[in-house]
Design a protein that fits this description.
The complex is a heterodimer of chains A (about 325) and B (about 120). Chain A is α/β, with parallel strands linked by helices. Chain A has 2 domains: about 180 residues, FAD/NAD(P)-binding domain, CATH 3.50.50; about 120 residues, FAD/NAD(P)-binding domain. Chain A is built from 6 helices and 17 strands. In chain A, strand 4 and strand 5 form a beta hairpin. Classes of the chains: A alpha/beta (about 325), B alpha/beta (about 120). The complex binds flavin-adenine dinucleotide (FAD). Flavin-adenine dinucleotide binds next to helix 1 and helix 6 of chain A. The site of flavin-adenine dinucleotide has 32 residues of chain A, from helix 1 and helix 6.
Chain lengths: ~325, ~120
Amino acid sequence: MDNYNFDVIVIGGGPAGLTAGIYLSRAKMNTLILNEGTAGGQMILTHEIANYPGVESISGYELANIMKNQAKNFGCKIKSNVRITNLNFEGDIKTVEVNNKEVYSAAAIILATGGRSRSLGVLGEDNFKGKGISYCATCDGDFFQDKNIIVVGGGNSALEEAVSLTKYAASVTIVHQFDNFQAFPQAVEEAKRNTKINFIMESKIIEFIGDESLIKVRIQNQRTNDISEMNIDGVFIFIGYKPNTEMFNGLIELNKWNEIVTDENLETNVAGVFAAGDSIKKKYRQITTAVADGTIAALSAVEYINNLKVLHQV
Amino acid sequence: MLRTNLKHILSEEEFKNVIEQNENVMICCGRMGPMCIPVYGIMEEIEGEYKHVAFRDLEFDAPHSHVITNLPECRNFYGIPFTVYFKNGKVVKATSSIQTMEQVTDILNKNFGKE
Ligand SMILES: Cc1cc2nc3c(=O)[nH]c(=O)nc-3n(C[C@H](O)[C@H](O)[C@H](O)COP(=O)(O)OP(=O)(O)OC[C@H]3O[C@@H](n4cnc5c(N)ncnc54)[C@H](O)[C@@H]3O)c2cc1C
């Protein structure tokens, strides 16, 4: 890619970013999407999407590919698996440095970095990822046939996945930091009714221990601080999502949950910097809401650039 | 068959040919799921940059997947995809579960070099 100057740079290639790419390129804006991972974002984590209007049922991977091709067919450039190493949002021309080498510039930026699963961030977690620790029940559940496993978390995903994992596991122990669950009452009831599921409440895993694979965990009771050890074959972690906004800290306004604060046109507190999708402050996080945000942010960016052009002509 | 843009290994014989006929080989054995798709995406992205490496995928649930899943290097793996790197037919590295671009290129550069 030889051209380093664009009208708009979109950071993040999930449904919000890809939709912005479609609208911008169709409006003849020279657009670049920079994406840290594989384009498609959290959509590719979804085996079946049945609530995207107009398509009865589709895999997230396929929907992501369609959106990607739509954007590309309108002329949008997409660069995946990049690492953004520096951002400068000051002035009329904003810059984005990638992989510590190339610097791209644009008049407007759209931030669409979405969110990711939280990890526990405790000792040993990185060492045993794929060797006993998993974040995906549908991917890795069948490795734990007749084994004893732990599910960490107290929300809907944790309780629903705990129940689904009882298809394989001999026992599932739910470890949750509070004395009550955040999940819907039906999900809690279903888990409580399942005879394979046990509960360790008000407790946190503080260390993963093993050699070539996970062997045991250390668990701390949050009320008494007592620490116990438990032999275990696998641990599935479902403790919610957080916005991918760390790199914007200090550059634009974030709220106390690190969500990007925007106005109704999805512009941030910095002129020419817009935001869309799961990374912004909002209540409902779905593909439909992300594509709606992507549309609004793109159209607002087009208007911003057109106004900028008029201003510079005067 | 996996729905990726990579070349697929569709039989045990094909696996043998690939690792015999290519000095450097990276094989990702997985399904079309959230931990595997990002690794296929990385392989598709860098295939053009690493012309001295043969990139292949192999379906985890295919009958011939034992050529990867039964390798001693994958003995303690409990997360797909199983990604295995071969040099001159021998395993030089194997990883379990999702990997980042940096992790993959580190392994490629260390074991196969960058042209
Ligand atoms: C398991 C699961 C199932 C779901 N099922 C459904 C469903 O059935 N229906 C539905 O409507 N919604 C579903 N959702 C929610 C939906 O996927 C999200 O709301 C939607 O994907 C959000 O889109 P987004 O573009 O804002 O962010 P994301 O999809 O998170 O995409 C953000 C993109 O930005 C990239 N990125 C992150 N940080 C950086 C950075 N620093 N630099 C560059 N790029 C970066 C990421 O790699 C990613 O590609 C599901 C979510 C999950 C996790």
